[in-house]
């Protein structure tokens, strides 16, 4: 496992409305919590990423299919109850929360600044959706030459087949892919 003092765990789009849409019958939140607790114990920064759109929606464009859906569904409005980080995995005081405006954790956010301040040169990715924030962030991180670890069972997608294809076929070409438990054990050694 590639870990160390220059890694950061990204917990992405784990917002109340997202969890409500995805459901948690699979035990997703406890698996994610395993990774968060392990990172904290190992002194690895936990950085939360949330999608946030301003209430008057200047952040959306009607020609963008996904953002049009988000607007129609009323998702990700800054300050709304449903846009808050799910309380089961909420940040501790002092942990960074980055607000993004598009799919990638880097889009319209100060993520690069936060990573520089923590001297991060390796990302561990978790989040919902695998085909959304995880994929977009992995693409951008690869372009930035940042090594990646993706915790396959701490990522989730509304389409299980898409999730499986990404974590079994695409992501292994770009990143180390492991489980939350295996990663937690590797950093505890």
Automatic annotation (TrEMBL):
GO MF entry, a single one: hydrolase activity
Keywords for this protein: Hydrolase
CDD domains the record matches: cysteine_hydrolases
Gene3D superfamilies, alphabetized: Isochorismatase-like
The Isochorismatase-like domain, residue ranges: 7-181
Pfam families on file: Isochorismatase
InterPro entries: Isochorismatase-like_dom, Isochorismatase-like_hydrls, Isochorismatase-like_sf
Name listed for the protein in its UniProt record: Cysteine hydrolase
Organism: Streptomyces atriruber
């Amino acid at each position: 496992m590639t870990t160390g003092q220059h890694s950061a765990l990204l917990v992405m789009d784990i917002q109340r409305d997202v969890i409500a849409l995805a459901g948690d019958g699979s035990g997703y939140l406890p698996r994610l919590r395993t990774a968060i607790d392990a990172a904290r114990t190992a002194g690895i920064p936990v950085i939360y990423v949330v999608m946030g759109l301003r209430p008057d929606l200047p952040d959306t464009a009607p020609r963008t299919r996904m953002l049009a859906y988000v607007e129609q569904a009323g998702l990700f409005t800054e300050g709304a109850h449903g846009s808050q980080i799910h309380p089961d995995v909420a940040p501790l005081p002092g942990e960074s929360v980055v607000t993004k405006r598009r799919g990638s954790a880097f889009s319209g956010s100060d993520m690069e600044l936060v990573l520089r301040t923590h001297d991060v040169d390796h990302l561990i990715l978790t989040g919902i959706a695998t085909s959304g924030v995880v994929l977009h962030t992995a693409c951008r991180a690869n372009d930035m030459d940042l090594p990646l670890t993706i915790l396959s069972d701490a990522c989730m997608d509304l389409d299980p087949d898409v999730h499986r294809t990404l974590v079994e076929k695409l992501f292994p070409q770009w990143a180390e892919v492991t489980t939350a438990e295996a990663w937690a054990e590797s950093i505890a050694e």
